[in-house]
Amino acid sequence: MIKRIAFLGCGSMGEAILAGLLGSELSPSAVVSTVRRVERAEELAHRYGITALAGAEEPDANSLAVQGADVVILGVKPIGIAGLCREISPTLDARTVVVSVAAAVSLSQLSSALPPGQPVVRAMPNTPLKVRRGVVALSAGPTTTAQQQALAHEVFVSSGVVLDVPEDAQNAVSAISGSGPAYVFYFAEALAAAAEEFGLDEDTARILARETVAGGGLMLTQPGADPAVLRRGVSSPGGTTEAAIAAFQAQGLAGIIAAGAQAAAARAAAITEELSAG
Ligand SMILES: NC(=O)C1=CN([C@@H]2O[C@H](COP(=O)(O)OP(=O)(O)OC[C@H]3O[C@@H](n4cnc5c(N)ncnc54)[C@H](O)[C@@H]3O)[C@@H](O)[C@H]2O)C=CC1
Ligand SMILES: O=C(O)[C@@H]1CCC=N1
After folding, report:
1. How many alpha carbons fall within 13 Å on the CB side of residue 70?
2. Could you give the domains of the chain?
């Protein structure tokens, strides 16, 4: 069981994981987070009752935070991961499991910036963890034991579905479920814009789009739900929905979505290269 956890970098993603985790049995007193700005640290401490340290005020915040932690979450941007690993290495306990949520940072890039043999896990979460409907894919490093992998699972299991995947699947996961919530929000924006084109007022348009996306998403969470079956349940033969789906297909919407996911995965691969090139 996790006794102490440190979040190094607690922005959108770190906070989503933190919020989901604190909804479980973990006490806020078991959590320490670090961020750059004092205002953000105060906000996190106030909102969640955790200890939050700001690098602007406490230059050793990250090294202090990892002391005594069984799990450390690296929640900074990919470009900052190696430097952060090197910064904490001198104070990191050899048994502490280091979980990176950074897109595109490989296990070997992580390990090469940490003490030899440090247990590492590469994770690709998504922000719906915040409302405990997230999904995360984990890939453990070669020296990470089953018990240490179980600690990484524990970070996420109360906030969503946890999958174990081979590391070479991580860019695809990032392109589908890591970035995916943004695709859904973009769809909601486009649906609201379409509503306004009918002359509906902005508020009505936003409410219709938001509740439709949220309600449809909730239906997908029911046991055995299949999106194609649910779609047929809305589409009367010869009716209005069928006309809309036919227009989507004529415009190549499925191909457009696939192209978006391909672009995301290609960008992840490019970032990995850029990080290696230094
Ligand atoms: N936002 C998302 O939906 C997802 C993000 N990720 C990954 O999560 C990581 C963080 O992304 P976001 O949360 O979106 O970024 P963000 O910019 O919202 O958060 C980063 C946080 O790290 C802090 N920070 C930066 N350098 C620091 C340092 N040296 N020490 C302590 N704190 C530091 C910043 O103050 C900020 O609070 C990225 O590597 C990204 O690839 C992964 C999956 C989804
Ligand atoms: O946009 C990004 O780079 C991150 C990784 C997955 C989702 N957000």
Report:
1. 14
2. 5-169 (3.40.50.720), 180-263 (1.10.3730.10)
Question: In the chain, where do the E strands start and end?
Answer: 5-8, 31-35, 51-54, 71-74, 97-100, 120-124, 134-140, 160-164
Q: For the whole prediction, is pTM greater than 0.90?
A: yes
Per-residue pLDDT tens over the stretch 193-226 = 999 999 999 999 999 999 999 999 999 999 999 9
Query: How does the average pLDDT of the chain come out, rounded?
Result: 97
Residues pairing with 73 in the sheet: 7, 99
Residue 80: pLDDT band (50, 70, 90) is very high
Which residue among 33, 50, 77 is best mutated to probe the pocket of ligand 1, counting the most ligand atoms within 8 A of its Cβ?
Answer: 77
Residue 47 sits at φ, ψ, to 5 deg, of -70, -35
In sequence order, what DSSP letters do the residues of 112-154 get, joined into one string? HTS-TT--EEEEE--GGGGGT-EEEEEEE-TT--HHHHHHHHH
Backbone φ and ψ of 140, nearest 5°: -90, 150
Atom of ligand 2 nearest to the CA of 102: 5
Q: How far apart are CA 162 and CA 193, in angstroms?
A: 35
